[in-house]
Amino acid sequence: MEDKKIYFDNNDTTPMVEPVFNAMKPYFMENFGNPASLHEYGLEAEEAVGKAREDIANLINATPEELIFTGGATEANNLALFGLARMAPEKKRHIITSKVEHHAILNTVKRLGKEGFKVTFLEVDREGFVDPDDLKKAITPETFLVTVVHGNHVVGTVQDLNALGQICRDSGVLFHTDAAQSFTKVPLNVKDTPIDLISLNSHKIHGPKGVGALYMRKGVKIGRLMEGGPQENNRRPGTENVPGIMGFAEAARIGIAQQEENNQHICKIRDRLLDRLLEIPHTHINGPQGDKRLSTNANITFLYIEGEAILMHLSMRGVFVSSGSACSSIALQPSNVLTAIGLKHEEAHGSIRFSFSKLNTEEEVDIAVGHMHAVVDQLRSMSAFIPEEHSEIEGKGTTFYKKKKDEF
């Protein structure tokens, strides 16, 4: 077991499970038709895509006509935001989002800002939550869209969609959420939630990469991002990724059917890891605890050492994690999420995200914890950043310094 590679980066992507692969295989070589073709092969493909659309829609209590297949959650986010902006009335040029969004949202609204739209970035608290009162105050007569992530990709914060969505609905403003991380982990019911658009994807739920979907409530209108054929109800042109869609549907069906069981298992191993890693001095957890956090996520700051160094040393030992957010780990800038919740740059740079799936085990946690203790000891022994002059007051999982107490 010591030589086993341990994958704790499931918020980045998940391994495909065999039933999903089996659901996809016939659509590569046997049922290979284009859904737009009118012959037998095309009609078979069209029927398969229709069934997948219906199945995924049913899982969130939507209708099939409200679901648009895309190339992933990033495309779904772009389609939602750019598509709505193109249809916005001339006097509705204001968008509200939060400071803890994925870059697929942040960079999209920043571009819209350069195109003449006004963008408001809501602050969050220490756990990453948007205050509904802040949202209510930010809405103006010019606001046409609010977009706030459901399950945060860095610290796991699960926003209260009902509270935020009701404010939007009462104000006559459209509400969109990126649910790439939360789908199949947190219940989503569009009939019970005041929400207009939801971005979903497949590869974070043990499905294939390169496929996702946008839920769009009936009556909402968006402009097309690309020109071409009339696919996806004339909203997203191009031949559908039939094998990917079939895998996405199967992964979603399995994920929802096993949601409670998987969450119980994942929470157990996540909490086992947290309990043991927070025994390491000078550490603290980022984000909320309990059911306000995604079961799959644990983000911990290890003071006085670089997260990238931790990541590389763990990788050499066969333990794979992420430094902050995998989507921004190639950049030298600290995670926008970690700085938004109040971490200083050096704290953000010393943060590691462990993320789990149903395939992980307690034994993997125990091995990873052992490696983590060794890596932290090694790196801190070489660190030039430990302030020897500071008097310490320690508690499990948290270290306060008298000179810096208010900064944590």
Automatic annotation (TrEMBL):
Listed Gene3D superfamilies:
Aspartate Aminotransferase, domain 1, Type I PLP-dependent aspartate aminotransferase-like (Major domain)
Keyword entries, A-Z: Iron, Iron-sulfur, Metal-binding, Pyridoxal phosphate, Transferase
Q: Which InterPro entries match?
A: Aminotrans_V_dom (IPR000192), Cysteine_dSase (IPR016454), PyrdxlP-dep_Trfase (IPR015424), PyrdxlP-dep_Trfase_major (IPR015421), PyrdxlP-dep_Trfase_small (IPR015422)
Q: Which residues form the Aminotransferase class V domain?
A: 6-366
How would you classify this enzyme at the top EC level? transferase
Cofactors (names): pyridoxal 5'-phosphate
Mention one GO molecular function: iron-sulfur cluster binding
- Which domain of life, per UniProt? Bacteria
Per its UniProt record, what NCBIfam families does this chain match? PRK02948.1 (NF002806)
- Similarity-based family: Belongs to the class-V pyridoxal-phosphate-dependent aminotransferase family. NifS/IscS subfamily.
Quote the function comment for this protein: Catalyzes the removal of elemental sulfur atoms from cysteine to produce alanine. Seems to participate in the biosynthesis of the nitrogenase metalloclusters by providing the inorganic sulfur required for the Fe-S core formation.
Name the UniProt record assigns to this protein: cysteine desulfurase
